[in-house]
Fold each of these.
Amino acid sequence: MFVAFEAVQHLRTLLNLVLTNSEARKLLSDFGVIGRDLLARGAAKAAENIRPDEEQLAKVDHTAPQDQFVTEGGRAAGPGEKPIVEAKLPFDTAFKHDPDAPQPTVERRGEVRGAGDVIDSGRQQFSEVRGAVDPHISGAKE
């Protein structure tokens, strides 16, 4: 107990010397200024990298084609054609939803499965992992 008290007193003395010494205070102040300068330079560089180019900004004023829908493959859907929603996902995966199909599909590496099957499989895998991490957790919903 006595050693801890002495350590606190020594730290207090050291802190008092650092905070009252004008050279140490100037050094801490300079570190703050340099840090702020580095942060400002980094933020300015990031701003330049994310800024859109002039061509992209010029396109903002143009109107989009009217009554045009995009279907799978990125092609324009013709009149009377129902567009199919298609989204590319990470890990070579694609999501498609045909309005006439009973459910959306997920295609991964050539294997096509219904979205409901993928969701059920994910839930089952989650339950298995959750049970492996903590065997006291049951598969029942909370």
Amino acid sequence: MGIPIRDKRRKRRRSYADYKPSSRKSRPRDDPFRIAFYLVLIAGCLWIYFNQDTVRGWLGDVVPEGQQAASAPRVSTENEPSEGQSEGTPSPDDLAQQAEEAYQAGDLDEAISLYQEAAQDAPNTVEYPFQVARLLLFQSALQYGDQREATIKEAMDAANRAILANPERPEGYAIMGKVLDWDGQPEEASNQLIRAIELDENYAVGQSYLAEALLDMDRWTQARETAEQALALAPENVDVRRDYAYILENLSEYAGAATQYEAAIRIHPKLAYLYVALGRTYRVLGRYDEAFDAFFEAQSLEVDSAMIPFEIGLTYESFIGDPDSAMEFYQQATDLDENYASPWLRIGTLRYYQGRYGEAIPAFERVLALDVDSNDLYYQLGLSYANLGQCADALPYLREAELRIEDDEDVLAVVQEAIQTCETPTPTPRPDNNGTGT
């Protein structure tokens, strides 16, 4: 299963303030007559069970094998529609089971859709909107820009529904905390997560989500301790392993982070974003072949993700030193999403340093059109135009760069020299006595 809402979590301890002793008086349990009565009753039931045909003959109501008597009550099957549900329509439990199967197969779109349908049919069941919000966050891990913002907003709506479904359960507050943290609001996130843990102090997922929020508030020691508590409670939970890996990664303990990401993948081997996180960790460790293996596995799971080929390109460029291979994957990323600014910026930068200014300029212009603000972008674009002798196009970018990079003396000197060159008028040849230039 996914997040252990019921079966994989330790038994939940309710507040002692809610405890009420039983008012029923106890009775003696060693009465010999009562024991004898129960033994006779059990023996009689067993005899009837193993002699059903004989009993039917006595009653004069023999039913042919494989056919149910018309007067017998109809037994409800698992898929039988409940009251108010049309026959043949799957129940919320059926939908949730299908959603879980899709999730285990790595089909997050289908899993989210099925959990949403289950949540609509069972609005008081907290697990369904909880899972919707959780899986939307998984999707957002491989998104950027407006798409990611829209996914986070959708996850927040689902988290609200989880709280409303049952305010006495911790899951809704926990997933709301997770969403808020991924939305860049760790303080607000911690408030929600503390409330979840107050409802169930042994709720491992709540502890794990809180650990990540604490890290994002720079409370590193407390974050680590909280993550270790969560791991002790639920070592087989994929969220717990991932969050602990994230904390170790941000503490620069990359070997430990890789171990935890590997453990998370063993629990759920079909989540692309885990492979991307593992690949990033491997490349910092210098384990480049393993990093590529992780990225390519992620790509096989999410073929439409532009972020994955970008990460492969970045590995070739910044860690391997192979700009040609990097360029291939950056181009692949832009083919998948022409509005993804990061690969366009790297394409422009690579071409700039290769002296291929005519190819750098359209890439840089594309980045600007996507509203990316970068100091390097302005001076590289300005110098690219200047090196092609297009001073009218170069000067606006060079002047903007001059204002932005005033603290970088080396780059500033190059920019100011280019400005001076572009602003110096080209001398006009003077005619000589014969009417020709001198």
Amino acid sequence: MEGRGWSRREFAGGGSLLALALGLPSAAVYLEGLDKGDAPSDRQRAIMREVADMVIPDTDTPGAAKAGVGDFVLLALAHGLEGSRAALAPDAVSSTIRQHLRRDGSLDHARWLENTLDRAVGGDWPAKPAERKLEALAAIDAEAFAEGAGPHPWRMVKGLILTGYYTSEIGGSQELAYEPLPGRYDPALPMGQDTRAYSNEWTGVDFG
């Protein structure tokens, strides 16, 4: 924003996220450097890693877990990427969300997701069979993106999963095609079912 300086949180967060996106050593280093109130638990890290991989599993290219997307999402949430540290509007605070608000009125998405998944399966989500875990996550996704649905925390989490993956080395160079610009001009290119979007042509990339 014009005329607005960066806060210490934004500056440190930007460096951490950039380092992670470039594949620098272990995101754990950056997570451990977070303030105590922002640092995720080991269980939350494991849940976010598995959830990210359910959203983007291994196919003919590596999925979100191998791209380190779970830790990216937790770092992004801690540093307020995409407005994730903004105070929620009163009409967006349900009884189940209120218990996961921070003192500043923002939502602790990692704690919300952990609790919501546990409640959805009636116990310890990570310990349930893969089919049951996927079923619970799919139900949350359907609720969040249902026609006429209001603000929902899962939209933020899922959006960051997609952003983290498609800006990672794996997502940007293996899942998406890459063509150095400006390249040559081709007025017409054949396209088929296997044609991939280009990671450096943002008008052709849809994150959902």
Amino acid sequence: MPHDISDLPHALENAGELERRMEGKRLAVFLDYDGTLTPIVDRPEDAVISDSMRAAVRGLAERCPVCVVSGRDRKVVHELMGLDNLIVAGSHGFDIWTPDEGTIEHDAGGGYEELIEEVKARLDEEIEPFQGASVEPKRASVAVHYRLVPEEERPRIEQIVDGLLAERPDELKVTPGKMVYEVQPKIDWDKGKAVLYLLETLDLDRDDVVPVYLGDDVTDEDTFEALAGISPPGVGIFVGLADDPETAGRTTAAGYLLSTILEVERFLDTLAR
């Protein structure tokens, strides 16, 4: 059942309750990147993980499976993380790399190269005139970033994206995020399905494994819902401030809250002990 973000118990302040849920179990930790391991920034290329956060992720990955699940391309996330002991799922889980098996590509993400290229070309042409907007091509989607676009011009960005969807309603869908529209092929896939697929593929869908997911954005809600629906339920942790203008009024299927990136780092350190 969705909760108001402001009503969520704090993960660090309720560490004892979480420890009881995890007692005698193996952990499998899944992490969003932007807004979870790094602060949200004006330009995606500036979202560089800190040395201390990288050390926290590295230490946890030495104890249990750790996977970064991101809408970014897998190779980009791998380079940003700079670690070789964690699993990376890029393009919303279509493109997976593990230390033991190398690259694992999900079949659902293939065959859309021409469509993605057409969408990129169209958006490049129509978005280019807007100062501060940028189009980011990915393996299985095209992202339109508008955080730096003047507020009065943002509705026009939305109109362009909506117009593209209206022309190709059977081929495309859009996932809104924090000042970004993610235009994707219209297939039944999201981060939640990606994490469930990873649990199965990596033989982690077991009663003795507790999956934990940390995320901050609308796209992470699919994962919170997916983990809440398995038996026994996984642990979903929303990252962000309840009174942030970009999250105010939202509900979430997560069970706990961490308010800041620094708290995420502290939490990961506690899991690694």
